[in-house]
Protein 1
Amino acid sequence: MACAVRVGPRGKFKPLAPRSPSTSFCISTLSDMTRTAKLITLLPSADVDLARWMLAHWGIPFDERPHAPIFHILALRSYGAGRMDSPLLIHEGAKFAGVDRIAAGFDPLAPADRRLVPDANTDPALHGDVMTVQHDLRWNLGMGTVKWAYFHFLKDRALVWPSFTTGVPIWERAFLFCGGFGLVKSRLIDALKLSQASANEALGAVQRGFDLVESRLADGRPHLCGDRLTLADLAFATSGGPMVLANGYGGHLPRLESCPPDVQAVITDLRARPAGRYIQQLYDTYRVI
């Protein structure tokens, strides 16, 4: 059963005390969700694309409310959430902040053939493997992707403009267009501590993530944790997607030919690797757009 949560002190979550029938939310099956959910997002984020993918995989209708970087923090705070609570899923007053809480809240309600996380009681070993792999890929490879991509793409506004502005509120777009882009860019560089050295280290983290994936697929298994599609596969596809400019990624990535030659070389090399091909295979096979 999925029940509502609310933001407590220092970003912790606790059960939501219903204030009215409309803010109380407990469901036992996904068919009980009769209203469209609302997803508050940072448009280019890998975890956001993972949330989009999970919701589509489960068949949960949602209305995305995208925001540009930095502005997404203001949007989260307007719903009582913290800066680290993206993506935020809201349904009838209930709040599920971040991929982990969305998965924990809704995957157990999905039909068996649509579940992405193995049951911890009936298959604890597989459950543990899936959760470990998805966490490592999102936080290690994923952070490498963030730092490498932002370092290189922020050099040319045209490379990030669609991912910053598509579908965002008009005042955010206007702010970025009228000089605010430079301020957002500076804030991102400072917050992520971007430099050539950090980008080189980040690329190393990405390559190690690809190594991990390839070592698992080397025995012929169809997916990272065995025969079935799991959260680990989706986490890899979305965390590594920007590094191969995956077709189907929801964050409005630039075209390869628009990138500088040195960036094109890295992307082309990663695309040619078995792990890079696996990312596009996952998008082509399983992504519902």
Protein 2
Amino acid sequence: MDDISDLVAANLIAAHEASDVSAINGIVSLANILRKRGLLTDGEASAMYESMSLPLGLPKYAENPEVQDLQSNLDRLFAVVMEPK
């Protein structure tokens, strides 16, 4: 029974990770499209980045290596969004 519980827990964690990555990629992709069309200002893109980064820096998450990886990925993706047009 523990093996099944462990499998269910592992599957739930994997599903949450996939969902997070999917959502982040979608948001950043939309931001990039809007920036290229001139519909998202630097300030608005920066505010999006800050609102997505803020929870990752909370004390209960900040020391987690997986969260740090997620933050690095977010930094990299938003660097592309913020490149000059």
Protein 3
Amino acid sequence: VPRDAEDYVHRIGRTARAAASGVAITLINPDDMYHFSGIENLIEKEIFKINVPAELGESPKWEVNKRRSNNRGRPKSKPRKHSGNKRR
């Protein structure tokens, strides 16, 4: 999912060129949920969502309450202790 909602709407709009109709399917992982909600805000509509078929695995729970952190599940780093070797 593009980080910019207008880019996504432009790309998906290509399915409706020349008075043709079409269906756009977008697979979203937990990191994309926040950005996808921005698309819904831009078009002022809620987009219908379905879970992936069970044989493909478990679908993530739809949560857009917060942005995903950039640490991608890594623990927060601890402050480093100084070794005492300071330049003067």
Protein 4
Amino acid sequence: MSISCALNWAQNRLARTNNLSSYEAKFEAEYLLTELLHVNRAHLIARPESTLPEPIKQAYTDAVNQRVMGKPIAYILGYREFWGLKLKTTPDTLIPRPDTETLVNETLKKITPQTQRLIDLGTGTGAIAIALATETENIEILATDLHFATLAIAKHNASEHQASISFIQSDWLQPFKSTQQFDIVVSNPPYIEENDQHLNQGDLRFEPPRALASGHDGLKAITTIIKQCQSRLKKDGWLLLEHGYTQGDQINALLDAHGYRSISTIKDYANLDRVTIGQR
């Protein structure tokens, strides 16, 4: 099978069964093949008649069939790019998304020469902590997750990128005493309402529910973190939270009610409310 035949087959199959536009189907078909061949898109365009090796043909067929069933591309390939880093990604982890780079950007802005300790709560693949570790020096970075299997993935990713991070299995900040304070606490916690219909659609169907939904209003985990940080943040320390694009006002109100100051909400690449921050 040639490259052009493989792409045409995949594009038609994806468009027909996944209700994708022709552009979306073409993008996914090309992306899967470039990743399996370890080449760029220009290679596909320049060599349309090249014959695919049998192992690649079989792997591509399997990948497209999995995608037709709705499986996220990150889980099919086993990794996802975030902050220019390739991160191992499995069904034990949330899939890193570009929106979360807003959280990394805002955290970097809050780091000063006086910053000593930073913690990432609910680290998942380790995306946030690893991105921060690659951009900073002389800061103790910790990362937590409640689930052992998830932490194992995060540790693997940190090792791959030589990121110095201490990983701890914990429920948010619960095991940390008020004497173990941090300059910065950052988190992308679950924030979808537990009965939200979107949980049964698209990639969300395959991601761990515990990493997506949090209570009837989506604010259970965020409220817990805000309360715990009252005694675990140093004076003038910062809490940075990712959230849904409709939740900015609610989280502003929660931070204000719990004594935080300098509260503000930052928009993501799509100009939607995505990160809210507050200072102790």
